[in-house]
Design a protein that fits this description.
The chain is globular. The chain is 8% helix and 31% strand. The longest helix has 9 residues. It is mainly β. The protein starts with a strand and ends in a 28-residue tail after the last strand. It has one domain: Folate-binding fold (2-Layer Sandwich), CATH 3.30.2270.10. The strands form two sheets. A four-stranded antiparallel β-sheet has the order 3-4-5-6, with no helix packed on it. A two-stranded antiparallel ribbon has the order 1-2. A hairpin with a 5-residue loop joins strand 5 and strand 6.
Length: 108
């Protein structure tokens, strides 16, 4: 069993989560060539070691988060919200990202 530490709910069994993919920067749509888009969509580094991954807590808080995980030992050294959901002074709950609220949460 692999435990993933959700930054919102705490450690949970990995069966509660969905792997979203490696943490890679998206190319600029205005300047990227077809080859750059192909690499972004289909090429993965798949290292044997530490990597940054994106996960979705589908059976819990239903939020996305980022994990630094060792792909051989499954050890996790960091788990945090994606940069787009990071807390700020003007948005202490991180609600401006739009993924924090459920569909029935009502107006903000």
């Amino acid at each position: 069993m692999m435990l993933l530490p959700c930054p919102h709910c705490g450690p949970r069994n990995s069966s509660e989560f969905r792997y979203v993919g490696e943490g890679t920067a998206r190319p600029d749509p205005g300047t990227a060539t077809i080859g750059v888009w192909r690499d972004y969509l289909y090429t993965r580094s798949n290292p044997a070691g530490w990597t940054t991954e994106n996960w979705f807590h589908r059976a819990g808080c239903r939020r996305y988060f980022t994990v630094e995980r060792h792909t051989v030992s499954n050890a996790v050294r960091a788990s945090h919200r994606p940069a787009a959901q990071a807390r700020t002074t003007s948005d202490p709950e991180g609600l401006s990202a739009g993924t924090e609220r459920g569909p029935d949460a009502g107006p903000g």
